[in-house]
Amino acid sequence: MIRPIGSLLTICMVAIIISCASDGKQQHLQTDRGYDYVMHTDVDGPVALPGEYTIFTISMRAGDSLLNTSSGMPDLPRLQIPEAGASGGNTAPIIDGLRLMSVGDSMTLFFPLDSMDAVPPAFADIEMIEYDLGLKEIKTAEEFQAEMEAHSKVREAELAEVRERLTEVTDLSERFLKDYNENNLDLKETPEGIKYIIHQEGTGAKPTQGKMVSVQYFGRLLDGTIFDTSFRQGEGYAFPIGMGRVIKGWDQGLMHFNEGTRASLFIPSSLAYGEGGNQGIPGNATLYFYVELEKVN
């Protein structure tokens, strides 16, 4: 309910995520499928063999606009290198780059969107996507499987701990909203008109534009109606702040908090979903969010 556009970090889109452009001075080379690339760091080492897994950083950019990045994500993306020719033209373009990289290498790979049969609507006005790749690790299939099993156990325990707080946070948000409606909260207000109160001050860094943040949240209308919460699944919502990936009230309001802060946000409709509303949220609705700023990267 907090996203104004569909998430770009789906599993399929992770295969085409990345960013920074070259400085224009390095020679453009071509992959076997004809994608241009520039190697920024070229380490003399082994490359990943078919069946092995690459663990890498990635950013996705169109010109000067950062579309998405793995920076600040709790886990780096990883892809298995397929056999040569496997899946034909359906293989993700960044696979071409990852095949050429040793651990420690970095490159920019250029993907012209006119090479796609169907361009996603979100990319309709983009001619070229630039993927910045940095290869961090290469693992065998056996090593990767063992790591995933261990990671899954740890991650599930973390999510279960958050889910167990659902009743607690439901009650907290109900109480804070009641205090707001009865004018019993000592609220601050941003220049944009977002009202907020900090319940627990964090000690970490404040987010700045483009930083990845992860937020646990519980959303209500002012009449108490619950419209969305991350505490039900346990997974905080991660996004680059200030880049228009969420409602303006989040982009602007969360920049006032340090990492670790727990707070209530009261967001006017002009900084949320406006006159049109969104999926069960009526038009002109002020939104209440109880939020916990988990991470700033």
Please render the helix and strand layout as text.
Blueprint: H1 11-14, E1 29-30, E2 36-41, E3 53-62, E4 65-69, E5 78-80, H2 93-99, E6 106-112, E7 128-139, H3 141-163, H4 166-181, E8 188-189, E9 195-200, E10 212-221, E11 226-229, E12 237-240, H5 248-253, E13 262-267, E14 287-296
Antiparallel strand pairs: 1-2, 2-6, 3-4, 3-5, 3-7, 6-7, 8-9, 9-13, 10-11, 10-12, 10-14, 13-14
Task: Please provide a written account of the structure.
With 297 residues, the chain is an alpha+beta fold. The protein has 2 domains: 11-139, Chitinase A, domain 3 (Roll); 165-296, Chitinase A, domain 3 (Roll). 19% of the residues lie in helices and 29% in strands. Strands 1, 2, 3, 4, 5, 6 and 7 form a 7-stranded antiparallel beta sheet that branches. Strands 8, 9, 10, 11, 12, 13 and 14 form a 7-stranded antiparallel beta sheet that branches. A hairpin with a 4-residue loop joins β10 and β11. The two termini are 23 Å apart.
Short description:
The chain is an alpha+beta fold and 297 residues long. It has helices spanning 11-14, 93-99, 141-163, 166-181, 248-253, and strands at residues 29-30, 36-41, 53-62, 65-69, 78-80, 106-112, 128-139, 188-189, 195-200, 212-221, 226-229, 237-240, 262-267, 287-296. The longest helix has 23 residues, at 141-163.
Keywords:
2 domains, alpha+beta, 19% helix, 297 residues, Chitinase A, domain 3, single chain, 5 helices, elongated
Biggest sheet architecture: 7 strands, antiparallel
User: What is the string of helix and strand elements?
Assistant: HEEEEEHEEHHEEEEEHEE
Q: Which structural class fits the helix and strand makeup?
A: alpha+beta
CATH structural class of the largest domain: Alpha Beta
Taken from the alpha-carbon principal axes, the silhouette is elongated
CATH architectural grouping of the largest domain: Roll
Mean of residue pLDDT values: 88
The amount of beta strand, in percent, is: 25-35%
CATH topology of the largest domain: Chitinase A, domain 3
Detail the poorly predicted runs. 3-24
The number of helical runs is: 5
Assembly category: single chain
Q: How many beta-strand runs? A: 14
- The percentage helix is 10-25%
Estimated radius of gyration: 22 Å
N-to-C span: 23 Å
Number of domains: 2
